[in-house]
Specification:
Helices cover 46% and strands 21% of the residues. By secondary structure, the protein is α/β, with parallel strands linked by helices. Strands 1, 2, 3, 4, 5 and 6 form a 6-stranded mixed beta sheet that branches. The longest helix is centred in the last third of the chain and has 18 residues. The radius of gyration is 14 Å and the shape is globular.
Length: 156
Amino acid sequence: MKLQTLLAEDMVVVDLKGRTREEVLREMVDHIVRRVRIDPREDLFARLMAREKLGTTCIGDGVAIPHAKIGWLKKPVLMLGLSKCGVPFDGVDAKPCHVVFLAASPLGNPEVNLHVLAAVAKVVRGSGGLAQKLLKAATPKDVLRLLCEEEDDGRA
């Protein structure tokens, strides 16, 4: 599974406004609800927050992958948000997250969730400085181009 097949331009926000983990997750959930025309938004937000309480979804190097399994979803939803100022996600490295991949997948298909998370982790780990590269992107189109390059260059 590749990110370029999961992530659409309208699911990329290059300037998240939230300053806390909760604000960023709420902002991203609201964006998803407007784009995908799904509801109930509270269910998605509540599941994301419940997952965060189990342990941070920050994987280091300024990247977080909050994720949840949702019963009413038919296919996975992936969104990418960038925060210029950084958001505390209580990661092990104690650094703020600048890149947030929000993944929601169908509850009845746990393998899909693992494939989405693995695809994100592969690009992040293979890239070396992905957050810094993405923060330089001015538009969602630029972000997607950079991600495609990272996936296609053979390292990710």
